[in-house]
Amino acid sequence: MHEHLKESRYRHSLGVEEMAVRLAGLHGADAEKAAFAGRYHDIAKNMDIPEMDAQIRKYGLPEHLLGNNALAHSKVGAAILEHEFGVKDADILNAVRYHTTARKGMSLLEELIFVADVVEDNRTYSDLDYYQQLAYSDLDRACYEILEYTIGDLKGKNREIDTDTLEARDWVLQRIKEKNNGK
Ligand SMILES: [Fe+2]
Ligand SMILES: [Fe+2]
Q: Ligand 2 centre and the CA of 6: distance in Å?
């Protein structure tokens, strides 16, 4: 599968795998599933637009994904893992499918892949250490802050924000509030 991925993408994939396993250990998720989903979450990332669009049509995925590789690579990646690699585990497939947008009601595995993608060791942004520490200590809070950042960033660039992302932000915030009230 290495040949599907450029070298930097490959390093990122191994970084997400490693971070996902670390987060699985800290937050009580299945480490093997986390490793697999982490390693292959970007399996479709390097496709060009015509190739991605062909996959979207082949697998009957929503038309709004056409021409939008940033969103499509997670949905196409899940379809490839399911149909070409025979992955049957729904939680792994959903972790790949929603790793870009997240979604309301996401599972622990989905949430930790979403977070691991952003906080893996090869990332180079200035607040990386802050987000890593947050991910280790409070996964929901890390997820919420990443969603808030993503939404603000997309707004700033006048880009479309996926409904799943907005709903995920509200859903995680609600869960954080409920947890705090319970204390
Ligand atoms: Fe991705
Ligand atoms: Fe990624």
A: 12
What is the 180 CA–ligand 1 centroid distance (Å)?
Answer: 31
- Using the CB atoms, write b or e for 27-63: b if 16+ within 10 Å: bebeeebbbbbbbbbbbbbebeeeebbebbeeeebee
Say how many Å lie between the CA of residue 13 and the centre of ligand 2: 7
Specify the number of domains making up the chain.
1
Give the helix ranges, DSSP H, for 98-127.
108-119
Residue 132 sits in a domain whose CATH number is: 1.10.3210.10
Please tell me the total number of residues recorded for the chain in this structure. Answer: 183
The rounded Cα 129 to chain-centroid distance in angstroms is: 19
Distance (angstroms) between ligand 2 centre and the Cα of 106 equals: 18
- The whole domain housing 37 covers 2-181
The CA 75 to ligand 1 mean position distance, Å, reads 10
Cα 117 to ligand 2 centroid, rounded to whole Å: 5
| Cα angle 91-137-127, degrees, rounded to a multiple of 5 | 95
- Neighbouring C-beta atoms of residue 166, cutoff 10 Å: 14
Q: Which residues of the chain have pLDDT under 70?
A: 1-5, 183
State residue 6's pLDDT score: 72
Ligand with the closest atom to the CA of 122: 2
What pTM did the predictor assign?
0.94
